[in-house]
Structure formats: structure tokens, C-alpha cells
Amino acid sequence: MTTTPMTSLDLVRQVLGHYSDAPVESIVPEAELAALGVDSLTLAELLFELEDRIGVTIAEPAERPSTIAHILVLVEPHMDLIRAKSAA
Hints:
Elements: H1 8-16, H2 40-54, H3 68-75, H4 79-87
């Protein structure tokens, strides 16, 4: 039985679910973080948890992320690590 590999959006949805009451279907790339109830503290916590789950340090973004798409850009380069962990 094969499972569908986790996408970066799946991961962000899982983690953001711990910090926001936003419905999972509203967590889409074009969603504004502010509209999802993500303030600067929540964003920091979200990024730290993503780092913990991936097992790497995510590069500090040049500008503060304002959408889910911006978070995905930070996470996507590390998704092979997540996929490898879940396959093991």
C-alpha cells in the first residue's frame, strides 16, 4: 500500500492548526496570515515548529511572510527530508 507523500501545504496546515482556529480549507497559498489570525508571535511559533518537524533551521526570510505562499517558499526546499522520514 502506498501513501500519498505529504506536501508542504499539508505540513503547514497541520502545524498552523495548533496555533489558529482557521478552518483547514481556508489555509490555501493565497490566504493572508493576518486573516487567519496569525500575528508576529504566532508566526515565530509556527516557524519554530516547522523547523522542529523538518529537523533543519529555516533561513530567515528577507521580509516578514504575509501569506501562506510565503511560508510554503520557506518550507518547500526541505520537504524531501519530511518525505524521507515518513517513508522510513
